[in-house]
Fold these 2 entries.
Entry 1:
Amino acid sequence: MHQAYGAAPGGRGIRRRTLAEMNTRTCSRAACESEPVSTLTYVYADSMAVLGPLSLEHEPGSYDLCVRHTRSMSAPKGWQVVRYVSVGNEY
Ligand SMILES: [Zn+2]
Protein backbone atom coordinates (compact mmCIF):
# COMPACT_ATOMS: atom_id res chain seq x y z
CA MET A 1 0.00 0.00 0.00
CA HIS A 2 1.15 3.48 -0.70
CA GLN A 3 -0.30 6.85 0.10
CA ALA A 4 -1.76 8.57 -2.91
CA TYR A 5 -1.97 11.90 -1.19
CA GLY A 6 0.89 13.01 0.98
CA ALA A 7 -1.30 15.17 3.12
CA ALA A 8 0.63 16.97 5.78
CA PRO A 9 -0.98 16.99 9.22
CA GLY A 10 -2.96 20.15 9.74
CA GLY A 11 -2.51 21.17 6.16
CA ARG A 12 -6.15 20.95 5.35
CA GLY A 13 -8.71 23.61 6.05
CA ILE A 14 -6.26 26.45 6.06
CA ARG A 15 -6.38 28.24 2.79
CA ARG A 16 -4.17 31.14 1.90
CA ARG A 17 -5.76 34.02 0.12
CA THR A 18 -5.26 34.01 -3.57
CA LEU A 19 -4.20 37.10 -5.44
CA ALA A 20 -7.73 37.60 -6.70
CA GLU A 21 -9.04 37.64 -3.18
CA MET A 22 -6.42 40.12 -2.09
CA ASN A 23 -7.76 42.52 -4.66
CA THR A 24 -11.24 42.45 -3.27
CA ARG A 25 -11.75 45.06 -0.63
CA THR A 26 -12.68 44.46 2.92
CA CYS A 27 -14.40 46.55 5.53
CA SER A 28 -12.35 49.55 6.60
CA ARG A 29 -12.95 49.04 10.27
CA ALA A 30 -10.03 47.71 12.25
CA ALA A 31 -9.95 43.96 12.65
CA CYS A 32 -12.93 43.53 10.37
CA GLU A 33 -12.46 41.57 7.20
CA SER A 34 -16.04 41.36 6.10
CA GLU A 35 -17.08 42.11 2.60
CA PRO A 36 -18.03 45.78 2.26
CA VAL A 37 -21.53 46.66 1.13
CA SER A 38 -21.43 50.41 1.33
CA THR A 39 -19.04 53.31 1.14
CA LEU A 40 -18.92 55.97 3.78
CA THR A 41 -17.67 59.38 2.76
CA TYR A 42 -17.07 62.25 5.09
CA VAL A 43 -17.95 65.61 3.65
CA TYR A 44 -16.08 67.88 6.00
CA ALA A 45 -17.32 71.10 4.47
CA ASP A 46 -20.91 70.21 5.34
CA SER A 47 -20.23 68.07 8.43
CA MET A 48 -21.97 65.26 6.67
CA ALA A 49 -21.33 61.55 6.66
CA VAL A 50 -22.71 60.05 3.49
CA LEU A 51 -23.40 56.35 3.28
CA GLY A 52 -23.83 55.24 -0.28
CA PRO A 53 -23.59 52.14 -2.38
CA LEU A 54 -20.15 50.61 -2.53
CA SER A 55 -17.99 52.74 -4.75
CA LEU A 56 -16.22 51.08 -7.63
CA GLU A 57 -12.91 52.55 -6.75
CA HIS A 58 -11.54 53.40 -3.38
CA GLU A 59 -11.32 57.13 -2.96
CA PRO A 60 -9.37 59.11 -0.42
CA GLY A 61 -11.53 60.04 2.53
CA SER A 62 -13.98 57.24 1.93
CA TYR A 63 -14.37 54.06 3.87
CA ASP A 64 -15.85 50.77 2.82
CA LEU A 65 -18.15 49.24 5.40
CA CYS A 66 -19.65 45.80 5.82
CA VAL A 67 -23.30 45.26 6.68
CA ARG A 68 -22.64 45.22 10.38
CA HIS A 69 -20.59 48.38 10.40
CA THR A 70 -22.95 50.12 8.01
CA ARG A 71 -25.69 49.58 10.56
CA SER A 72 -23.64 50.54 13.55
CA MET A 73 -22.09 53.56 11.89
CA SER A 74 -22.55 56.75 13.81
CA ALA A 75 -21.29 60.14 12.88
CA PRO A 76 -19.43 62.47 15.19
CA LYS A 77 -21.58 64.79 17.27
CA GLY A 78 -23.00 67.60 15.24
CA TRP A 79 -22.63 65.66 12.02
CA GLN A 80 -25.47 64.72 9.80
CA VAL A 81 -25.75 61.20 8.47
CA VAL A 82 -27.17 60.71 5.02
CA ARG A 83 -27.97 57.14 4.11
CA TYR A 84 -28.51 56.19 0.52
CA VAL A 85 -28.40 52.50 1.29
CA SER A 86 -30.53 50.21 3.33
CA VAL A 87 -28.93 47.01 4.45
CA GLY A 88 -32.06 45.18 5.45
CA ASN A 89 -33.33 44.60 8.93
CA GLU A 90 -33.21 40.87 9.43
CA TYR A 91 -32.01 41.44 12.97
ZN1 LIG B 1 -16.99 45.69 9.19
Entry 2:
Amino acid sequence: MEYARGIVVSVVAGYYFVEHANKIYLCRGRGKLRLDNLSPMAGDIVLFSPGKGDTGSVEQVLPRRNFLLRPAAANVDAVVIVLAPQGPQPNLLTVDKLLALLVSMKLEAILCVNKADLDPQAARLLAGIYRDAGFASIICSALTGHGMDELSQMLGRRTVVLAGQSGVGKSHISSQISLGQLELPVQVGKLSAKIGRGKHTTRQVSLLPLAGGGKVADTPGFSVFELEMESHDLHRYYPEFLNSGQCKFAPCFHIHEPDCAVKARLQQGEINPIRYENYIKIYTELQEREANRY
Ligand SMILES: Nc1nc2c(ncn2[C@@H]2O[C@H](COP(=O)(O)OP(=O)(O)OP(=O)(O)O)[C@@H](O)[C@H]2O)c(=O)[nH]1
Ligand SMILES: [Mg+2]
Ligand SMILES: [Zn+2]
Protein backbone atom coordinates (compact mmCIF):
# COMPACT_ATOMS: atom_id res chain seq x y z
CA MET A 1 0.00 0.00 0.00
CA GLU A 2 1.28 3.43 -1.00
CA TYR A 3 1.36 6.04 1.73
CA ALA A 4 0.58 9.66 1.01
CA ARG A 5 2.06 12.56 2.89
CA GLY A 6 -0.24 15.23 4.28
CA ILE A 7 -0.70 17.82 6.96
CA VAL A 8 -3.22 17.57 9.77
CA VAL A 9 -5.43 20.66 9.54
CA SER A 10 -7.89 19.81 12.30
CA VAL A 11 -8.74 17.16 14.86
CA VAL A 12 -12.37 16.57 15.80
CA ALA A 13 -13.68 13.80 18.03
CA GLY A 14 -10.91 11.35 17.18
CA TYR A 15 -10.96 12.13 13.45
CA TYR A 16 -7.99 13.72 11.76
CA PHE A 17 -8.53 16.04 8.82
CA VAL A 18 -5.51 15.55 6.60
CA GLU A 19 -4.83 17.86 3.68
CA HIS A 20 -3.07 16.36 0.69
CA ALA A 21 -2.96 17.76 -2.86
CA ASN A 22 -5.60 20.40 -2.12
CA LYS A 23 -8.04 17.85 -0.77
CA ILE A 24 -8.99 17.01 2.78
CA TYR A 25 -9.20 13.39 3.88
CA LEU A 26 -11.19 12.30 6.90
CA CYS A 27 -8.84 9.95 8.70
CA ARG A 28 -8.81 7.66 11.69
CA GLY A 29 -5.57 6.83 13.47
CA ARG A 30 -4.10 3.35 13.20
CA GLY A 31 -3.92 1.45 16.49
CA LYS A 32 -0.16 1.71 16.41
CA LEU A 33 -0.40 5.47 16.86
CA ARG A 34 -2.27 4.96 20.10
CA LEU A 35 0.31 2.43 21.23
CA ASP A 36 3.05 4.95 20.50
CA ASN A 37 1.04 7.46 22.50
CA LEU A 38 1.35 9.88 19.63
CA SER A 39 -1.90 11.66 18.99
CA PRO A 40 -1.63 13.63 15.78
CA MET A 41 -2.27 17.35 16.25
CA ALA A 42 -2.92 20.18 13.84
CA GLY A 43 0.27 21.04 11.98
CA ASP A 44 1.58 17.48 12.09
CA ILE A 45 3.01 16.07 8.89
CA VAL A 46 1.70 12.53 8.60
CA LEU A 47 1.85 9.53 6.32
CA PHE A 48 -1.59 8.14 5.63
CA SER A 49 -3.17 5.47 3.49
CA PRO A 50 -6.07 6.82 1.45
CA GLY A 51 -9.21 4.67 1.62
CA LYS A 52 -12.60 4.87 -0.06
CA GLY A 53 -13.63 8.34 -1.21
CA ASP A 54 -12.03 11.01 0.91
CA THR A 55 -11.25 8.80 3.88
CA GLY A 56 -7.98 7.38 5.12
CA SER A 57 -5.88 6.08 8.00
CA VAL A 58 -3.02 7.95 9.58
CA GLU A 59 -0.11 5.54 9.74
CA GLN A 60 2.72 7.63 11.05
CA VAL A 61 3.41 11.07 12.49
CA LEU A 62 6.68 12.45 11.14
CA PRO A 63 9.11 13.99 13.65
CA ARG A 64 7.94 17.37 14.95
CA ARG A 65 10.06 20.49 14.79
CA ASN A 66 8.25 21.68 17.92
CA PHE A 67 4.79 21.52 19.43
CA LEU A 68 2.52 23.28 21.87
CA LEU A 69 -0.01 21.53 24.07
CA ARG A 70 -2.15 24.55 24.74
CA PRO A 71 -3.27 25.33 22.12
CA ALA A 72 -2.36 21.98 20.54
CA ALA A 73 -0.33 22.57 17.39
CA ALA A 74 2.86 21.19 15.87
CA ASN A 75 5.56 22.58 13.58
CA VAL A 76 4.85 26.19 14.41
CA ASP A 77 6.92 29.20 13.27
CA ALA A 78 5.35 31.83 15.51
CA VAL A 79 2.53 32.34 17.97
CA VAL A 80 0.26 35.37 17.82
CA ILE A 81 -1.04 36.13 21.30
CA VAL A 82 -4.35 37.91 20.90
CA LEU A 83 -5.76 40.11 23.63
CA ALA A 84 -8.29 42.90 23.83
CA PRO A 85 -8.53 46.08 25.91
CA GLN A 86 -12.00 44.95 27.06
CA GLY A 87 -14.67 42.31 26.46
CA PRO A 88 -12.96 40.23 27.91
CA GLN A 89 -10.73 42.10 30.36
CA PRO A 90 -7.13 41.24 29.50
CA ASN A 91 -5.43 38.66 31.70
CA LEU A 92 -1.81 39.77 31.52
CA LEU A 93 -0.62 37.09 33.93
CA THR A 94 -1.66 34.45 31.39
CA VAL A 95 -0.07 36.44 28.57
CA ASP A 96 3.20 36.61 30.51
CA LYS A 97 3.17 32.87 31.22
CA LEU A 98 2.66 32.11 27.57
CA LEU A 99 5.42 34.55 26.60
CA ALA A 100 7.86 32.93 29.04
CA LEU A 101 7.06 29.52 27.55
CA LEU A 102 7.55 30.75 23.98
CA VAL A 103 10.84 32.49 24.77
CA SER A 104 12.05 29.32 26.49
CA MET A 105 11.15 27.35 23.34
CA LYS A 106 12.83 29.98 21.13
CA LEU A 107 9.51 30.41 19.36
CA GLU A 108 8.69 33.86 18.10
CA ALA A 109 5.80 35.61 19.85
CA ILE A 110 3.75 38.41 18.33
CA LEU A 111 1.38 40.41 20.53
CA CYS A 112 -1.83 41.37 18.80
CA VAL A 113 -4.11 43.81 20.60
CA ASN A 114 -7.46 43.36 18.89
CA LYS A 115 -10.73 45.28 19.43
CA ALA A 116 -8.80 48.55 19.35
CA ASP A 117 -12.06 50.13 18.11
CA LEU A 118 -13.49 49.69 21.63
CA ASP A 119 -10.73 51.64 23.39
CA PRO A 120 -7.87 52.87 21.20
CA GLN A 121 -5.95 54.39 24.09
CA ALA A 122 -6.04 51.24 26.24
CA ALA A 123 -5.03 49.24 23.16
CA ARG A 124 -1.96 51.46 22.68
CA LEU A 125 -1.02 51.09 26.35
CA LEU A 126 -1.24 47.30 26.15
CA ALA A 127 0.78 47.09 22.95
CA GLY A 128 3.35 49.44 24.51
CA ILE A 129 3.92 47.17 27.52
CA TYR A 130 5.00 44.34 25.27
CA ARG A 131 6.83 46.40 22.67
CA ASP A 132 8.94 47.90 25.48
CA ALA A 133 9.64 44.39 26.75
CA GLY A 134 11.08 43.48 23.34
CA PHE A 135 8.19 41.72 21.59
CA ALA A 136 6.68 42.55 18.23
CA SER A 137 3.24 43.95 18.88
CA ILE A 138 0.48 45.27 16.73
CA ILE A 139 -2.84 46.99 17.30
CA CYS A 140 -5.83 45.95 15.22
CA SER A 141 -9.55 45.52 14.90
CA ALA A 142 -10.99 42.52 13.13
CA LEU A 143 -14.28 44.41 13.14
CA THR A 144 -13.10 47.49 11.21
CA GLY A 145 -10.27 45.68 9.40
CA HIS A 146 -7.68 48.03 10.87
CA GLY A 147 -4.23 46.40 11.09
CA MET A 148 -5.23 43.25 9.18
CA ASP A 149 -2.87 43.97 6.27
CA GLU A 150 -0.02 44.69 8.65
CA LEU A 151 -0.67 41.42 10.45
CA SER A 152 -0.84 39.47 7.17
CA GLN A 153 2.46 40.96 6.10
CA MET A 154 4.11 40.04 9.39
CA LEU A 155 2.96 36.45 9.06
CA GLY A 156 3.92 36.00 5.40
CA ARG A 157 4.71 32.42 4.54
CA ARG A 158 4.92 31.16 8.09
CA THR A 159 2.73 28.74 10.02
CA VAL A 160 1.34 30.68 12.95
CA VAL A 161 -0.99 29.92 15.80
CA LEU A 162 -3.49 32.37 17.27
CA ALA A 163 -3.65 31.96 21.03
CA GLY A 164 -5.52 33.79 23.77
CA GLN A 165 -8.55 34.04 26.01
CA SER A 166 -11.99 33.18 24.75
CA GLY A 167 -13.74 36.10 23.09
CA VAL A 168 -10.71 38.22 22.16
CA GLY A 169 -11.44 37.75 18.44
CA LYS A 170 -9.15 34.95 17.26
CA SER A 171 -11.75 33.46 14.93
CA HIS A 172 -12.62 36.85 13.48
CA ILE A 173 -8.96 37.64 12.87
CA SER A 174 -8.35 34.27 11.26
CA SER A 175 -11.31 34.64 8.92
CA GLN A 176 -10.07 38.13 7.97
CA ILE A 177 -6.52 37.08 7.15
CA SER A 178 -7.07 33.57 5.78
CA LEU A 179 -8.23 32.56 2.33
CA GLY A 180 -11.35 30.87 3.64
CA GLN A 181 -12.68 27.99 5.60
CA LEU A 182 -11.57 24.40 5.40
CA GLU A 183 -13.00 22.49 2.44
CA LEU A 184 -14.31 19.49 4.29
CA PRO A 185 -15.02 16.10 2.73
CA VAL A 186 -18.66 15.18 2.17
CA GLN A 187 -18.49 12.24 4.58
CA VAL A 188 -17.93 14.60 7.44
CA GLY A 189 -21.67 15.02 7.86
CA LYS A 190 -22.45 15.86 11.45
CA LEU A 191 -18.84 16.60 12.24
CA SER A 192 -18.84 19.62 9.96
CA ALA A 193 -21.44 21.28 12.19
CA LYS A 194 -18.98 21.03 15.05
CA ILE A 195 -16.19 22.64 13.09
CA GLY A 196 -18.31 25.65 12.04
CA ARG A 197 -16.64 28.92 12.95
CA GLY A 198 -17.98 32.39 13.43
CA LYS A 199 -20.06 33.58 16.33
CA HIS A 200 -19.60 30.56 18.52
CA THR A 201 -16.75 29.68 20.72
CA THR A 202 -14.15 27.61 18.88
CA ARG A 203 -13.86 23.97 19.96
CA GLN A 204 -10.87 22.76 17.96
CA VAL A 205 -7.80 23.93 16.15
CA SER A 206 -8.27 24.65 12.42
CA LEU A 207 -5.32 25.34 10.20
CA LEU A 208 -6.26 27.68 7.34
CA PRO A 209 -4.28 28.96 4.34
CA LEU A 210 -2.98 32.55 4.46
CA ALA A 211 -2.87 34.84 1.44
CA GLY A 212 0.92 35.14 1.75
CA GLY A 213 1.40 31.37 1.45
CA GLY A 214 1.57 30.57 5.15
CA LYS A 215 -1.00 28.99 7.43
CA VAL A 216 -2.89 30.27 10.44
CA ALA A 217 -4.32 28.11 13.19
CA ASP A 218 -7.49 29.33 14.85
CA THR A 219 -7.69 27.72 18.29
CA PRO A 220 -10.06 27.44 21.25
CA GLY A 221 -9.60 30.14 23.88
CA PHE A 222 -8.22 29.34 27.32
CA SER A 223 -8.29 31.13 30.63
CA VAL A 224 -5.90 29.15 32.81
CA PHE A 225 -2.44 28.34 31.63
CA GLU A 226 -0.04 26.16 33.62
CA LEU A 227 3.55 27.04 32.98
CA GLU A 228 5.88 24.06 33.43
CA MET A 229 9.41 25.17 34.16
CA GLU A 230 11.90 25.60 36.98
CA SER A 231 11.31 28.79 38.97
CA HIS A 232 15.02 29.54 38.77
CA ASP A 233 14.94 29.53 34.97
CA LEU A 234 12.05 31.97 34.64
CA HIS A 235 14.18 35.14 34.69
CA ARG A 236 16.03 33.98 31.58
CA TYR A 237 12.83 34.32 29.56
CA TYR A 238 12.26 38.02 30.19
CA PRO A 239 14.01 39.81 27.31
CA GLU A 240 13.88 43.15 29.14
CA PHE A 241 15.78 41.68 32.14
CA LEU A 242 18.64 40.44 30.02
CA ASN A 243 20.02 43.81 28.99
CA SER A 244 19.82 45.30 32.47
CA GLY A 245 23.53 45.21 33.20
CA GLN A 246 25.22 43.45 36.08
CA CYS A 247 23.49 42.38 39.27
CA LYS A 248 25.76 41.91 42.30
CA PHE A 249 24.80 38.27 42.68
CA ALA A 250 25.04 35.68 39.95
CA PRO A 251 22.68 34.13 39.35
CA CYS A 252 20.28 36.84 40.49
CA PHE A 253 16.55 36.16 40.42
CA HIS A 254 15.83 39.86 40.80
CA ILE A 255 13.65 39.47 43.87
CA HIS A 256 15.24 39.98 47.31
CA GLU A 257 18.86 40.29 46.23
CA PRO A 258 20.68 43.57 47.01
CA ASP A 259 22.26 45.63 44.21
CA CYS A 260 19.98 44.17 41.57
CA ALA A 261 20.20 45.87 38.19
CA VAL A 262 16.67 44.78 37.23
CA LYS A 263 15.16 46.33 40.37
CA ALA A 264 17.18 49.47 39.74
CA ARG A 265 15.70 49.73 36.25
CA LEU A 266 12.25 49.03 37.64
CA GLN A 267 12.71 51.97 40.04
CA GLN A 268 13.79 54.16 37.12
CA GLY A 269 10.63 53.22 35.24
CA GLU A 270 12.54 51.36 32.53
CA ILE A 271 10.97 48.03 33.32
CA ASN A 272 7.21 47.83 33.30
CA PRO A 273 5.83 47.31 36.85
CA ILE A 274 3.01 45.05 35.62
CA ARG A 275 5.50 42.77 33.88
CA TYR A 276 7.67 42.73 37.02
CA GLU A 277 4.74 42.06 39.41
CA ASN A 278 3.58 39.20 37.22
CA TYR A 279 7.14 37.86 37.12
CA ILE A 280 7.05 37.69 40.95
CA LYS A 281 3.62 36.03 40.86
CA ILE A 282 4.69 33.41 38.35
CA TYR A 283 7.98 32.79 40.19
CA THR A 284 6.07 32.34 43.46
CA GLU A 285 3.58 29.94 41.83
CA LEU A 286 6.41 27.87 40.40
CA GLN A 287 8.20 27.81 43.79
CA GLU A 288 5.01 26.65 45.54
CA ARG A 289 4.60 23.87 43.05
CA GLU A 290 8.23 22.83 43.50
CA ALA A 291 7.78 22.75 47.30
CA ASN A 292 4.81 20.36 46.88
CA ARG A 293 6.50 18.22 44.29
CA TYR A 294 7.67 15.37 46.54
N1 LIG B 1 -15.62 45.53 18.79
C1 LIG B 1 -14.99 44.48 18.30
N2 LIG B 1 -15.51 43.25 18.42
C2 LIG B 1 -14.84 42.21 17.91
C3 LIG B 1 -13.61 42.38 17.23
N3 LIG B 1 -13.17 41.15 16.85
C4 LIG B 1 -14.09 40.26 17.28
N4 LIG B 1 -15.10 40.90 17.91
C5 LIG B 1 -16.28 40.28 18.56
O1 LIG B 1 -15.87 39.54 19.69
C6 LIG B 1 -16.63 38.35 19.84
C7 LIG B 1 -15.74 37.14 19.95
O2 LIG B 1 -15.04 36.98 18.73
P1 LIG B 1 -14.41 35.59 18.30
O3 LIG B 1 -13.64 35.81 17.06
O4 LIG B 1 -15.44 34.52 18.29
O5 LIG B 1 -13.44 35.32 19.55
P2 LIG B 1 -12.49 34.07 19.80
O6 LIG B 1 -11.21 34.59 20.34
O7 LIG B 1 -12.40 33.24 18.58
O8 LIG B 1 -13.26 33.27 20.96
P3 LIG B 1 -13.12 31.68 21.31
O9 LIG B 1 -13.36 30.91 20.05
O10 LIG B 1 -14.18 31.45 22.35
O11 LIG B 1 -11.76 31.47 21.88
C8 LIG B 1 -17.60 38.33 18.63
O12 LIG B 1 -18.84 38.77 19.08
C9 LIG B 1 -16.99 39.29 17.64
O13 LIG B 1 -17.95 39.93 16.88
C10 LIG B 1 -13.09 43.69 17.09
O14 LIG B 1 -12.02 43.94 16.53
N5 LIG B 1 -13.82 44.71 17.63
MG1 LIG C 1 -12.86 31.33 18.21
ZN1 LIG D 1 18.99 41.06 39.75
